[in-house]
Amino acid sequence: MKQLLGRDPESGEGRSISIEHGRITAIAPADYTGSLYLSAGLVDLQVNGYSHYDLNGGTLTPERVLALTETLLALGTTTYLPTLVTASEIDITNGLIAIKAARELYPLVAKAVPFVHVEGPFISPNDGARGAHPAAHVRDADVHEFERWQAASHGLVGLLTLSPHTDVAIDLVRHASARGIQVSIGHTDATSEQIHAAAAAGATLSTHLGNGAAAMLPRHPNAIWAQLADDRLTATLIGDSHHLPADTLKAMLRSKGLDKALLVSDVAAPGGLEPGIYHQTIGGRVQLWPNGRLGTPGTPYLAGAALPLGDCVARTTGMTGFTLAQVLALATVNPGKFVGGRGKLAVGEAADLILFDWALGDDKLTIAETWLGGERVWAR
Known about the structure:
CATH architecture: Alpha-Beta Barrel
Radius of gyration: 20 Å
CATH superfamily: Metal-dependent hydrolases
Number of helices: 11
Helix content: 25-40%
Distance between the termini: 23 Å
Structural class: alpha/beta
Strand order of the largest sheet: 5-8-9-10-11-12-13-14
CATH topology: TIM Barrel
Number of strands: 20
């Protein structure tokens, strides 16, 4: 039996977690006077890359997926969804095949990656709503293309982001959700009626709500209000202090309720690198600033994100005034509901755990150890 000691993020008191055969067998109070918090590992539903490891562009290899997985584990993310964005069908398919191979070749990837998130290409073609996705590859929803992805990857697509601005797109929502695929609304300028129709057809999530939207919207109605109001949709939010102002983030969390919201990083390949100019699949030529902002040089526009989920937890805590335990739930158990119930800290659950340092005002979680399936896979 293995045992971990740390502070409970809710009470601050010491606790011990016992592990056998990769699962949590006991949680109990403990005499612990150290500084490390002990939590379930982070669960990120939207990862495009990190530290030069780009999942997009059509050249993905299983080795790159493994390297990205190892990097994310060192940052406290024990479960993540590799996210393939709008591209040609062949590039999306090749990405899926590479991730499938990585899961077959590397047990670490198989444990950390339950399935893949495809964001696009069935999104709004309009500027603003399209975001940094390449206009040349945006196309109408196509159930046959979706099924070709699944055939090539043996059903590896488990989350699909689309815009329900057409009847065909809503039909795809119905088709995919009937097959157990999570469908998320994103990069959309759909009407309120179309948003609600997509939720009725089985959509369960809103992708980075408040982003992937036109800079100028009608006061009401608009796609953001409709998604906030629809209780069938859980909002995913980028809490990096760049994508949503503090007031907006706090208001959205209050509107949805902490049980119907979760954090994602949406992190891209320049994340974790030195400030400077980079070229990436999402947005082309981009600039990374010292504060972690990733955008198009010379413009106010973002081009993806550069901060991992642990940073988003710390920054969201500072921006909103919610407690560390409340915000950790937004990055563990809440996203875990959409990947088979991961992210739970309870007896009988997988021992995917992190130990970390944090104090109010810190802009990141400093990870000390990461455990995946009861094995320590990283330590500082």
